[in-house]
Amino acid sequence: MNGGWFVTGTDTSVGKTRVSRLLLEALKRAGHSAVGMKPVASGCRAMDDGWRSDDARELMAVSGVSVDYADVNPYALKSACAPHIAAHEMGLEIQLEKILESFRCLQKKSAWVVVEGVGGWRVPLGEHLTMADVARAMRLPVILVVGLRLGCLNHALLTAEAIRRADVPLAGWVANHIDPAMTHVPENITALEQRIAAPLLARFPYQVTGVDENRPSGLSKETIMHLTSDS
User: Fold this and answer.
1) Could you list the residue range(s) of the whole structural domain that residue 152 is in?
2) Of 16, 38, 78, 109, which is the active-site residue?
3) What is the count of structural domains for the chain?
4) Closest to 17 in 3D by CA, of 136, 115, 86
5) Taking the model in full, what pTM does it have?
6) What pLDDT, in 10s, does the model give residues 15-64?
């Protein structure tokens, strides 16, 4: 039986890769076979073997299973902009079935797949396709990463409501402090706990980029046990 989660966020650059990596690391520590997936990535770099996403490569580095890059990141897009625009610039049309084919390949190789979305929940991937459509088609419970900064209450509550309306289970949410100037952080977290009908899985303090000692130790054993038992 396969398990996993779809990791979305209240916006871009709120810590989806950070949380996805920590989930993969925690699954490995618990002895589970786990692999990460980044179906669509913008702002990729040209390398000898093609366009490559730093996020996708980071997930591959902590995955416990050897898989093909093309399955982890079927759409590697050059421009660091909205994916449907970046895809259009490259003459590509992002297709749901291609993403699902790669997803199924990963499921055959690993018991657990952690899928990281791009941007926020409803980011467009094409004229009629959004990231929410991908999550719904994968039938994975969602973990919402809330970037703690001014305006996050509105963004988080709207996203949680959109997930509920999509009839996708919200497994929980993570509070990730991304703005050091934000005030009243505990009060904001309490407000979200009172309004989001899903558990707060973890709270991460502000992390200075590149400073390892500020990196959280990971998701607790209890959190992983709770998540894996519910998946």
Assistant:
1) 3-230
2) 38
3) 1
4) 115
5) 0.91
6) 999 999 999 999 999 899 999 999 999 999 999 999 999 999 999 999 98
Please list the alpha-helical segments (H only) found in the chain.
Answer: 16-29, 54-62, 69-72, 83-89, 96-109, 131-138, 152-165, 185-195, 221-230
Q: Which domain CATH number covers 175?
A: 3.40.50.300
- The label of the residue with tokens 């970037």 reads 147
Of 88, 45, 37, 86, the residue nearest 63 (C-alpha) = 37
> d(Cα 90, Cα 221) in Å, to the nearest integer?
43
Q: Are 6 and 117 in contact (CB under 8 A)?
A: yes
Determine the Cα–Cα distance for residues 115 and 39; give it in Å rounded to an integer.
7
Buried b (16+ CB within 10 A) or exposed e, 175-191: bbbbeeebeebeebbee
Confirm whether 28 is a catalytic residue. no
